[in-house]
Write a structure and sequence with these properties.
The protein is mainly alpha-helical. Helices cover 69% and strands 0% of the residues.
């Protein structure tokens, strides 16, 4: 047992020596052919503070130091996109620059190539670069410190909206399935992981899935993935279309040939989100449907279709406030939201030829005492319900039950 502890201590010292050598390499690259001010501009406020205040001994032995080195690597990769830089990091900084970081670097390089096709003159080449970048980023997404928000913003700059959806949901699945370790809570824990499990600072155990991610970190990371998608839709469907996304330079904006191209890119992202698996992304789909309805953008849901939309809306109608017995502001607000859901559900029934369900829904609303609908609106719904039912009864394709129609007509009268 004593020999094991001594061996572990020796390995830790050797490991610390390797980290020191890699840190020297990174700091050296930061001063070769790079403008220092340009480098500082790529760092966030925390990294700038640590760069100014941390001694070298703290850089290689504290969590803040590790984060600073990671930030410097990102900055150097952004400013120097040559293949030789990534290969040098990968060869000489295998601890601080693991496989996931190398894939991240190659993804950034592919985005840079896609940006050159800014006028969409050659969509095939541009899309090829974007798809390549997405493949690299999906590989890098296994890392515990993968910056999903930052990468999604970069994809959004290039109007690769579908890529944002794919990458964010991929990351959410990896986290949910414990395929990603939670970031080390201390530098010492990072050492322990690397020595005991033979992993690098990218936070992955080679060939093994980690189940050590804390529930709170998992929930926060998954929420961030979902917000990346919803925030993008907010910009695309609510913010003015000619405005730049937050924190995006105008020179990074791609120019589109016409509004039809923007609509095509936007619709492909919405459809990608709607096609998400209920088993893997049920919580996300509920958030997505609620967001579209709450923000009066449900027309995109009914136009592009989702097999789960009707069941979601039906579940919402099942919890509709029962009556006007409680006129609190909260309950009335819920009833008015239900009015939105009912409108979307009726349109879904209509467009999917669920005629009897559509008439049942109108009749239920018209006979209810919900204050979200005025009396005149309810009368209008009931008249529409009767006229609607009588009109479609004459078409044998609908196959409505005659007894049901007769009973419906009598009730309305």
């Amino acid at each position: 047992e004593r020999k094991k502890r001594e061996l572990k201590s020796i390995r830790a010292l050797l490991y610390l020596l390797d980290v020191c050598l890699e840190a020297f390499t990174i700091l050296q690259l930061c001063t070769e052919g790079i403008n220092i001010e340009a480098l500082r501009e790529q760092l966030d406020a925390q990294a700038k503070t640590h760069l100014r205040t941390l001694k070298f001994s703290l850089i290689v032995t504290t969590t803040h130091g590790l984060q600073l080195l990671k930030s410097l690597i990102d900055a150097v990769m952004y400013l120097r996109r040559e293949d030789s830089v990534g290969e040098l990091f990968h060869k000489k900084c295998s601890i601080l620059f693991g496989k996931g970081d190398f894939e991240y670097f190659k993804g950034l390089k592919s985005l840079h190539e896609a940006r050159k096709e800014e006028n969409f003159h050659d969509k095939t080449r541009r899309n090829r670069h974007l798809e390549k970048a997405l493949r690299y980023f999906k590989g890098a997404a296994h890392g515990s410190d993968f910056k999903i928000r930052k990468v999604c913003e970069n994809l959004q700059k290039l109007k690769y909206y579908r890529g944002v959806v794919v990458l964010a949901l991929t990351r959410a699945t990896l986290v949910q399935n414990d395929s990603v370790q939670a970031p080390a809570s201390s530098f010492g824990e990072a050492y322990e992981r690397s020595i005991d499990a033979d992993i690098g600072f990218d936070g992955r155990a080679h060939g093994e899935n980690s189940s050590s991610a804390s529930a709170s970190w998992k929930a926060k990371e998954i929420h961030t993935c979902h917000r990346c998608i919803l925030d993008m839709f907010r910009f695309l469907l609510i913010t003015k279309q000619d405005a730049a996304p937050p924190q995006v330079d105008q020179e990074d904006q791609l120019r589109l040939g016409d509004s039809g191209e923007l609509k095509e890119l936007r619709d492909s992202a919405v459809q990608e989100a709607l096609n998400a698996s209920e088993d893997d992304h049920g919580d996300f789909l509920r958030k997505l449907f609620e967001w579209f309805v709450d923000n009066d953008r449900a027309k995109h849901l009914t136009r592009l279709k989702s097999p789960l939309l009707i069941s979601f809306l039906e579940s919402k109608m099942q919890i509709m406030p029962s009556s006007s017995a409680d006129d609190t502001k909260h309950n009335l607000g819920g009833a008015y939201m239900m009015k939105k859901y009912a409108g979307v559900l009726h349109k879904c029934y209509y467009e999917s030829s669920e005629w009897q369900k559509a008439v049942d829904l109108l009749f239920q609303i018209g006979r209810s005492d919900q204050k979200a609908w005025s009396l005149s609106e309810k009368i209008s719904l009931l008249r529409k319900c009767r006229d609607y039912a009588n009109r479609i009864r004459r078409d044998s394709r609908f196959g409505l039950d005659e007894d049901w129609l007769a009973a419906l007509n009598d009730n309305i009268i």
